[in-house]
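Minutes, project check-in
Item: structure for the 253-residue chain
Input as provided by the requester:
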Amino acid sequence: MSVVEFGGSGPGILLLHGLMSRASTWWTVAQWLKPHGRVVGLDARGHGRNPRRGPFRTEDFVADAASAIERLDLGPAVVVGHSMGGLHAWALAALRPDLVRGVVAEDVVPDNRGRSVDEWRWYFEAWPAPFRSLAHVRTVVDVPRVEELFEERADGWHLIAELDDLYEIAAEWGERSYWDFVDAIRCPLLVVEAGRGALPAGQMAEVVRRCAARGLTAHHVVVPESGHVVHDEAPEVYRGAVEAFLSGSIPPV
Protein backbone atom coordinates (compact mmCIF):
# COMPACT_ATOMS: atom_id res chain seq x y z
CA MET A 1 0.00 0.00 0.00
CA SER A 2 1.30 3.46 -0.91
CA VAL A 3 -0.36 6.46 0.75
CA VAL A 4 0.29 10.14 1.33
CA GLU A 5 -0.62 11.45 4.79
CA PHE A 6 -1.57 15.07 4.14
CA GLY A 7 -2.39 15.90 7.76
CA GLY A 8 -5.45 16.96 9.69
CA SER A 9 -7.21 15.11 12.48
CA GLY A 10 -10.59 13.62 13.18
CA PRO A 11 -12.88 11.86 10.65
CA GLY A 12 -11.10 10.20 7.76
CA ILE A 13 -11.06 11.64 4.24
CA LEU A 14 -9.66 9.35 1.55
CA LEU A 15 -8.59 10.81 -1.81
CA LEU A 16 -8.63 8.61 -4.93
CA HIS A 17 -6.93 9.90 -8.07
CA GLY A 18 -7.73 9.33 -11.73
CA LEU A 19 -6.13 7.16 -14.41
CA MET A 20 -2.42 7.94 -15.00
CA SER A 21 -2.30 10.16 -11.90
CA ARG A 22 -1.10 9.63 -8.30
CA ALA A 23 -2.01 10.58 -4.73
CA SER A 24 0.41 13.51 -4.46
CA THR A 25 -1.50 15.48 -7.13
CA TRP A 26 -4.19 16.11 -4.48
CA TRP A 27 -1.82 18.31 -2.43
CA THR A 28 -3.60 21.64 -3.01
CA VAL A 29 -7.04 20.16 -2.36
CA ALA A 30 -5.75 18.42 0.76
CA GLN A 31 -4.63 21.72 2.31
CA TRP A 32 -8.17 23.09 2.55
CA LEU A 33 -9.63 19.70 3.39
CA LYS A 34 -7.48 19.30 6.53
CA PRO A 35 -9.81 21.34 8.78
CA HIS A 36 -12.51 18.79 7.92
CA GLY A 37 -10.59 15.68 9.01
CA ARG A 38 -7.53 13.50 8.54
CA VAL A 39 -6.71 13.56 4.84
CA VAL A 40 -5.00 10.61 3.17
CA GLY A 41 -4.32 10.02 -0.52
CA LEU A 42 -3.96 6.52 -1.94
CA ASP A 43 -1.77 5.55 -4.90
CA ALA A 44 -3.88 3.09 -6.89
CA ARG A 45 -2.23 -0.13 -7.99
CA GLY A 46 -0.24 0.50 -11.16
CA HIS A 47 0.21 4.16 -10.22
CA GLY A 48 2.59 6.38 -8.27
CA ARG A 49 4.74 4.47 -5.79
CA ASN A 50 2.35 1.55 -5.39
CA PRO A 51 4.39 -1.56 -6.30
CA ARG A 52 1.27 -3.61 -7.04
CA ARG A 53 0.65 -4.23 -10.74
CA GLY A 54 -2.59 -6.05 -11.38
CA PRO A 55 -5.01 -7.58 -11.35
CA PHE A 56 -6.92 -4.48 -12.41
CA ARG A 57 -10.61 -5.23 -11.98
CA THR A 58 -12.65 -2.51 -10.30
CA GLU A 59 -13.18 -4.80 -7.33
CA ASP A 60 -9.39 -5.05 -6.86
CA PHE A 61 -9.08 -1.27 -6.56
CA VAL A 62 -12.03 -1.23 -4.18
CA ALA A 63 -10.39 -3.88 -2.00
CA ASP A 64 -7.25 -1.73 -1.84
CA ALA A 65 -9.22 1.34 -0.77
CA ALA A 66 -11.13 -0.66 1.83
CA SER A 67 -7.86 -2.03 3.19
CA ALA A 68 -6.41 1.47 3.45
CA ILE A 69 -9.43 2.73 5.41
CA GLU A 70 -9.28 -0.23 7.77
CA ARG A 71 -5.52 -0.31 8.30
CA LEU A 72 -5.29 3.44 8.85
CA ASP A 73 -8.45 3.57 10.98
CA LEU A 74 -10.10 6.16 8.73
CA GLY A 75 -13.60 4.73 8.67
CA PRO A 76 -16.26 5.58 8.13
CA ALA A 77 -14.58 7.98 5.71
CA VAL A 78 -15.61 10.57 3.20
CA VAL A 79 -14.20 9.29 -0.08
CA VAL A 80 -13.28 11.89 -2.70
CA GLY A 81 -12.51 10.58 -6.17
CA HIS A 82 -11.64 12.04 -9.54
CA SER A 83 -12.58 10.16 -12.73
CA MET A 84 -11.37 6.58 -12.16
CA GLY A 85 -11.17 7.41 -8.46
CA GLY A 86 -14.78 8.57 -8.50
CA LEU A 87 -15.86 5.26 -10.00
CA HIS A 88 -13.94 3.41 -7.30
CA ALA A 89 -15.52 5.64 -4.64
CA TRP A 90 -19.02 4.70 -5.87
CA ALA A 91 -18.10 1.03 -5.90
CA LEU A 92 -16.55 1.21 -2.43
CA ALA A 93 -19.66 2.91 -1.03
CA ALA A 94 -21.81 0.17 -2.60
CA LEU A 95 -19.71 -2.81 -1.54
CA ARG A 96 -18.52 -1.60 1.87
CA PRO A 97 -21.13 0.86 3.17
CA ASP A 98 -19.71 0.42 6.68
CA LEU A 99 -16.54 2.20 5.59
CA VAL A 100 -18.03 5.17 3.72
CA ARG A 101 -20.08 8.06 5.13
CA GLY A 102 -20.06 10.26 2.05
CA VAL A 103 -18.79 10.37 -1.55
CA VAL A 104 -17.56 13.18 -3.78
CA ALA A 105 -17.25 11.95 -7.38
CA GLU A 106 -15.69 14.28 -9.96
CA ASP A 107 -16.38 13.92 -13.69
CA VAL A 108 -17.13 10.23 -13.97
CA VAL A 109 -19.99 8.22 -15.47
CA PRO A 110 -21.17 4.68 -14.75
CA ASP A 111 -21.53 3.49 -18.35
CA ASN A 112 -18.88 3.83 -21.05
CA ARG A 113 -19.77 0.61 -22.85
CA GLY A 114 -18.87 0.59 -26.51
CA ARG A 115 -15.92 2.90 -26.12
CA SER A 116 -12.44 1.51 -26.70
CA VAL A 117 -8.95 2.39 -25.54
CA ASP A 118 -8.09 2.48 -29.23
CA GLU A 119 -9.83 5.86 -29.34
CA TRP A 120 -6.90 7.38 -27.42
CA ARG A 121 -4.11 4.79 -27.60
CA TRP A 122 -2.67 6.58 -30.65
CA TYR A 123 -2.06 9.69 -28.53
CA PHE A 124 0.20 7.86 -26.09
CA GLU A 125 1.94 5.89 -28.81
CA ALA A 126 2.87 9.18 -30.49
CA TRP A 127 4.84 10.32 -27.45
CA PRO A 128 8.62 10.42 -27.76
CA ALA A 129 10.29 7.74 -25.67
CA PRO A 130 11.77 9.02 -23.51
CA PHE A 131 11.14 12.74 -23.09
CA ARG A 132 14.34 14.78 -22.89
CA SER A 133 13.25 17.09 -20.04
CA LEU A 134 10.22 18.20 -18.06
CA ALA A 135 9.93 21.15 -20.42
CA HIS A 136 9.73 18.64 -23.25
CA VAL A 137 6.97 16.78 -21.37
CA ARG A 138 4.96 19.97 -20.95
CA THR A 139 5.05 20.72 -24.68
CA VAL A 140 3.36 17.39 -25.43
CA VAL A 141 1.27 16.34 -22.42
CA ASP A 142 -1.28 19.01 -21.58
CA VAL A 143 -2.72 17.90 -18.24
CA PRO A 144 -2.65 19.63 -14.85
CA ARG A 145 0.32 18.79 -12.59
CA VAL A 146 1.91 16.79 -15.38
CA GLU A 147 5.34 17.03 -13.75
CA GLU A 148 4.15 14.76 -10.92
CA LEU A 149 3.24 11.98 -13.34
CA PHE A 150 6.76 11.57 -14.75
CA GLU A 151 10.12 10.58 -13.30
CA GLU A 152 13.69 11.00 -14.49
CA ARG A 153 15.63 7.87 -15.34
CA ALA A 154 19.09 7.43 -16.78
CA ASP A 155 17.93 7.97 -20.36
CA GLY A 156 15.35 10.73 -19.79
CA TRP A 157 11.82 11.32 -18.45
CA HIS A 158 9.23 8.54 -18.34
CA LEU A 159 5.61 8.25 -17.28
CA ILE A 160 5.57 6.56 -13.87
CA ALA A 161 2.58 4.39 -14.75
CA GLU A 162 3.01 1.69 -17.40
CA LEU A 163 0.92 2.33 -20.51
CA ASP A 164 -0.04 -1.34 -20.84
CA ASP A 165 -1.48 -1.19 -17.31
CA LEU A 166 -3.49 1.91 -18.17
CA TYR A 167 -4.88 0.26 -21.31
CA GLU A 168 -5.91 -2.82 -19.31
CA ILE A 169 -7.60 -0.74 -16.61
CA ALA A 170 -9.56 1.38 -19.07
CA ALA A 171 -10.54 -1.56 -21.27
CA GLU A 172 -12.88 -2.82 -18.54
CA TRP A 173 -14.84 0.44 -18.62
CA GLY A 174 -15.76 -0.13 -22.26
CA GLU A 175 -17.20 -3.54 -21.47
CA ARG A 176 -19.10 -3.02 -18.23
CA SER A 177 -21.93 -0.96 -16.76
CA TYR A 178 -21.59 0.26 -13.18
CA TRP A 179 -25.18 1.33 -12.54
CA ASP A 180 -25.55 -1.53 -10.07
CA PHE A 181 -22.97 0.15 -7.85
CA VAL A 182 -24.72 3.51 -8.11
CA ASP A 183 -28.03 1.89 -7.19
CA ALA A 184 -26.46 0.36 -4.06
CA ILE A 185 -25.06 3.59 -2.62
CA ARG A 186 -26.60 4.47 0.74
CA CYS A 187 -24.67 7.59 1.81
CA PRO A 188 -24.74 11.31 0.88
CA LEU A 189 -23.32 12.01 -2.55
CA LEU A 190 -21.91 14.97 -4.46
CA VAL A 191 -21.25 14.69 -8.20
CA VAL A 192 -19.14 17.43 -9.82
CA GLU A 193 -19.38 17.54 -13.61
CA ALA A 194 -16.99 19.27 -16.00
CA GLY A 195 -18.91 21.39 -18.48
CA ARG A 196 -16.16 20.97 -21.06
CA GLY A 197 -15.57 17.29 -20.37
CA ALA A 198 -15.90 14.55 -22.95
CA LEU A 199 -18.00 12.01 -21.06
CA PRO A 200 -21.47 10.84 -22.17
CA ALA A 201 -24.07 13.51 -21.43
CA GLY A 202 -26.79 13.11 -18.85
CA GLN A 203 -25.35 10.24 -16.83
CA MET A 204 -24.07 12.29 -13.90
CA ALA A 205 -27.46 13.96 -13.51
CA GLU A 206 -29.07 10.51 -13.65
CA VAL A 207 -26.77 9.25 -10.88
CA VAL A 208 -27.99 12.03 -8.61
CA ARG A 209 -31.62 11.54 -9.65
CA ARG A 210 -31.49 7.84 -8.76
CA CYS A 211 -29.85 8.48 -5.40
CA ALA A 212 -32.28 11.26 -4.51
CA ALA A 213 -35.22 9.04 -5.48
CA ARG A 214 -34.09 6.64 -2.74
CA GLY A 215 -34.18 9.46 -0.20
CA LEU A 216 -30.44 10.09 -0.14
CA THR A 217 -28.87 13.53 0.05
CA ALA A 218 -27.50 13.92 -3.47
CA HIS A 219 -26.17 17.01 -5.25
CA HIS A 220 -25.09 17.63 -8.84
CA VAL A 221 -22.83 20.59 -9.65
CA VAL A 222 -21.93 21.42 -13.26
CA VAL A 223 -18.88 23.65 -13.80
CA PRO A 224 -19.32 25.03 -17.35
CA GLU A 225 -15.85 26.57 -17.64
CA SER A 226 -13.90 23.48 -16.62
CA GLY A 227 -12.38 20.55 -18.41
CA HIS A 228 -12.00 17.08 -16.94
CA VAL A 229 -9.86 17.94 -13.89
CA VAL A 230 -12.24 20.34 -12.17
CA HIS A 231 -10.32 20.50 -8.89
CA ASP A 232 -7.36 22.00 -10.78
CA GLU A 233 -9.08 23.88 -13.60
CA ALA A 234 -11.81 25.55 -11.49
CA PRO A 235 -10.37 25.16 -7.97
CA GLU A 236 -12.47 27.77 -6.18
CA VAL A 237 -15.75 26.45 -7.59
CA TYR A 238 -14.74 22.90 -6.72
CA ARG A 239 -13.70 23.89 -3.20
CA GLY A 240 -16.94 25.76 -2.59
CA ALA A 241 -19.05 22.81 -3.70
CA VAL A 242 -17.10 20.27 -1.64
CA GLU A 243 -16.92 22.36 1.51
CA ALA A 244 -20.65 23.11 1.34
CA PHE A 245 -21.32 19.40 0.93
CA LEU A 246 -19.10 18.43 3.85
CA SER A 247 -20.57 21.11 6.10
CA GLY A 248 -24.22 20.62 5.26
CA SER A 249 -24.74 17.07 4.07
CA ILE A 250 -22.43 14.74 5.99
CA PRO A 251 -23.57 13.73 9.48
CA PRO A 252 -20.83 14.13 12.10
CA VAL A 253 -19.01 11.01 13.26
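Outcome recorded: The CA atoms of residues 206 and 215 lie 14 Å apart.
No further action items on this chain.
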